[in-house]
Design a protein that fits this description.
- The protein has 289 residues and is mostly beta strands.
- It has a domain at 28-217.
- The protein has 2 helices and 20 strands.
- The strands form 5 sheets. Strands 5, 6, 7, 8 and 9 form a 5-stranded antiparallel beta sheet that branches.
- A hairpin with a 2-residue loop joins strand 3 and strand 4 (105-110).
- The termini are far apart.
- The protein binds calcium ion (2 copies).
Length: 289
């Protein structure tokens, strides 16, 4: 009984100690539905989610998996393994498969002998047929990261070159191309070479069509994959990413045969979050003018 009384008093004290913050003092963050469709993870019909019925479905999710919802389906990384010990995303536990849940139906894409080095898959219509492809970052089997595209049936339809070692942070799919074509953009080795890469789907290959250095969206050991955005300026899709010191943001745009830095802006504090709402850039919860 004494314990209950102690907990009750402690609770009262804790509530009494909560700082009183008026709503005006807090920078408004956008609702998840309002965030640009090119933000991560994309696209999200109904926000971030947890697997609520994992026992019923008997799936085995990655401990830190982030589900992606789209078009009535939930995509979640599954079957944790310790077989690839790169560990740049906070642990050495990575996923051997991706499980797709649609109503009562479950399907699975197996990645063996590679593993998925990330927290969630990207979705995007790379071939323009109206159906989104599933984009995976696969590593292991004696090599670094490779970007692999699957269709909704789980069949592999294309893949990129493979790094001899190191990670790729797959960012998003948007009409970056100089002719408005849809392209996948990543940052190759965000801790080392810091190279923004643009890929187009050509037959069974993800072909690198442009690249530019040096920008970074990730620090080693972090699970924060939210350090980028996409805006449209004068009809041109621009990727917003931090400079390697994480103190400025830069807008990267495609040119007819490459990529260029269109502008750069100092933020004045270390950048830990970038998002876009109504084509406005928000860094660390504050609008960037
Ligand atoms: Ca992991
Ligand atoms: Ca497609």
């Amino acid at each position: 009984m004494k314990t209950y009384l102690l907990i009750f008093l402690l609770l009262l004290f804790t509530i009494g100690c909560q700082p009183q913050i008026s709503p005006e003092e807090v920078s408004p963050l956008p609702e998840i539905e309002e965030i640009s469709q090119y933000d991560e993870p994309i696209p999200v019909d109904s926000g971030f989610g947890e697997i609520e019925q994992e026992d019923e479905f008997e799936i085995n999710p990655l401990p830190d998996a982030i589900s992606v919802f789209d078009n009535g389906k939930e995509y979640v990384l599954t079957d944790p393994t310790l077989e690839y010990t790169h560990g740049v995303l906070g642990d050495t536990i990575e996923a051997k498969s991706l499980t797709i849940i649609e109503g009562n139906n479950i399907s699975k894409i197996e990645f063996s002998p590679q593993i998925f080095e990330g927290l969630y898959p990207l979705l995007g219509d790379l071939n323009g047929d109206g159906e989104k492809e599933i984009i995976a970052t696969l590593s292991g089997n004696g090599a670094g990261a490779q970007l692999v595209v699957y269709d909704q049936m789980g069949d592999k339809i294309a893949s990129s070159d493979t790094l001899s070692s190191g990670w790729r942070h797959a960012l998003t799919v948007a009409p970056f191309g100089p002719d408005g074509g849809w392209e996948l953009v990543d940052i190759s080795k965000p801790h080392v070479s810091k190279e923004v890469e643009y890929f187009q789907l050509k037959d069974d290959k993800l072909v690198k069509v442009a690249s530019i250095q040096r920008y970074s969206t990730h620090t080693i050991g972090s699970r924060n994959l939210e350090l980028f955005g996409v805006i449209v300026e004068q009809g041109r899709y621009l990727l917003i990413v931090p400079t390697p010191d994480f103190k400025s943001i830069a807008a990267i745009g495609r040119t007819s045969d490459g990529a260029e830095e269109v502008w750069k802006k100092e933020i004045g504090e270390r950048i830990y979050n970038i998002s876009v709402e109504d084509n406005e850039i928000i860094v660390n919860g504050k609008y960037v003018s």
